[in-house]
Amino acid sequence: MPDAENQRVVLARRPVGEPQESDFRTERGPVATPGPGQALVRTIWLSLDPYMRGRMSDAPSYVPPVLIDGVMTGGTVGEVMESRADGLKPGDLVEGRTGWQAYAAVDAAELRRLEPGPLPLSTALGVLGMPGMTAYCGLLNIGQPKPGETVVVAAASGPVGSMVGQIAKLRGARAVGIAGGEEKCAFVRSIGFDDCIDHRGPDLAARLKQACPKGIDVYFENVGGAVWDAVFPLLNPFARIPVCGLISQYNQTAPAPGPDRQAGLMRAVLTKRLTIRGFIVWDFASQQADFLNDATAWVESGQVKYREDIVDGLERAPAAFIGMLHGKNFGKLLVRVGPDAAA
Amino acid sequence: MPDAENQRVVLARRPVGEPQESDFRTERGPVATPGPGQALVRTIWLSLDPYMRGRMSDAPSYVPPVLIDGVMTGGTVGEVMESRADGLKPGDLVEGRTGWQAYAAVDAAELRRLEPGPLPLSTALGVLGMPGMTAYCGLLNIGQPKPGETVVVAAASGPVGSMVGQIAKLRGARAVGIAGGEEKCAFVRSIGFDDCIDHRGPDLAARLKQACPKGIDVYFENVGGAVWDAVFPLLNPFARIPVCGLISQYNQTAPAPGPDRQAGLMRAVLTKRLTIRGFIVWDFASQQADFLNDATAWVESGQVKYREDIVDGLERAPAAFIGMLHGKNFGKLLVRVGPDAAA
């Protein structure tokens, strides 16, 4: 790619509290040359996801953080431009984790070739990608909703939450969403949730209780904070709480003031026999084929619906990411980094 | 039983904080007459267990509390004196939940007939009873220790803790106990634990860390409080935490001062993918036969050892129970209510 130029967004410094655009830096430079076993991928879509806030911090986590001056990590869909790997050729479409950049040379083993199908390419990053699989694996393995039970999920118009509620419905459960604003709530109801609560209104706890007259059997935790506080007293005996995110906590810099409610949480675990289990999607990597089969069928048949929120241009990724941490996106947040592949 | 008199211990009032002997009242009265389908049981052994503190309180729990002026609830082993039930006859030995009293008329369905065997009758309340089964079911179903992993349990000289560590060893794991005082720790080591920490000494956290050089994979939670605080930072990714008791919390009357560590706990659940699950033994009632087969074989072969702490006379049960909440017992706490059955 002698004529092309790479564009990439690197981590300029670790944010304290809320990330600022100045924590990122957009750079231009040469396009990498693929080594043996590698392919050069041109990014078409970049996925922006809450977990990236954790990668900006060097607090202990399940993976190392992004290095200062390192390219921000991120899932992408792209087109193979050059290949020095068996099984990949120019023009192939691939999903990978090539980060916030226009081009990347990566090991072929880290790429998943996408078969052409009737659904848009971008779905490989949302309803048919990591967020959809997070919902699928967390809900079915840990949440285990049964017919007639009540499943609650926040960020319900987002790619994980919307999938959680729709799978809960397919399993015969009652699905109650929580979202920010009436427009999002209307969308959540339109895709089949039994109810959706606007967390911006007053007295969330009372309205959630009204929406869950039989209590809560599964709470899919992706936000924490005030939503968790509203959910907690409504948990039924034997409730299951898959924990895949705590987006409301990611920008916190100091512990909350007292009283210390940790012991009260453990007491509820005991008296209600709760199951609280943290996970990330790759803990269930062996279920990816099952997920893709099921989710593709559900989306193609219209049983599962999805919504995307598209931002044009890699340089707009930092602002879009910061907005997402405030709930400004409406649906799966994607950055269009480059044009679709020529058909 | 026209000549006999019943003796029973009732709940005089609900304790606030630490129970006092004056919260109990010992009464005498007539022996009940069994109705159809019932048997009259003479108590030989009464089991005293930490869960009883919960029954004295009317805070929400998994079972209703003991009523004021009601007989204290408790597991017993006794002898059938009269029977109006099929399958039970005078002289049969039974295990049941007939409470803190010398005689009880109860439905035969609530009694389990004990087969005569080489082990003492009292074991049906300890290593072969509810405490042993609590350890067995919680550890194997939730803890799931694997060879080479580290299992930590407090109250390790007690009937649950000692069984947890010994089963962990049988499964090839490293077992580290926590107990109060060097005499108890020596006992815990003598039954095969790899190490035992005296929680009364200074800097529990540092000594526990030293005893767990590869971190903690399973923490069997039965105490909470300072032990949990020492365990928490040592938990490994994917650690499992069966929660069957929080004895250090039972007498607490006010929430602890801040900061609020609840969010930090949930963050660790997420970043370490912890599993925290509350249970009571009867959630696994269907595994009782497996437990009895395994545990009986282990005890008879000497692979599992146990220790009993025996108090003579029902009138001494309140003081013994209060002492247990302070860790004064050394081994399974039992009250000898009446003589053994004539052989």
Q: Per the principal axes of the C-alpha atoms, what is the gross shape of chain A?
A: globular
- At the fourth CATH level, what is the homologous superfamily of the largest domain in chain A? NAD(P)-binding Rossmann-like Domain
Ranges of chain A where pLDDT stays below 50 over 5 or more residues in a row are none
Write down the secondary-structure element order of chain A: EEEHEEEEHEHEHEHEHEHEHEHE
Class derived from helix and strand content of chain A: alpha/beta
Q: Please tally the helical runs of chain A, counting DSSP H or I stretches of 4 or more residues.
A: 9
Average the pLDDT over all residues of chain A and give the rounded result: 95
CATH architecture term of the largest domain in chain A: 3-Layer(aba) Sandwich
Q: How large is the radius of gyration of chain A? A: 21 Å
Distance between the termini of chain A: 20 Å
Largest sheet of chain A: 7 strands, mixed
CATH third-tier fold name of the largest domain in chain A: Rossmann fold
Strand runs of chain A, count: 15
Strand content of chain A: 15-25%
By CATH reckoning, the class of the largest domain in chain A would read Alpha Beta
Largest interface: A-B, 43 and 43 residues
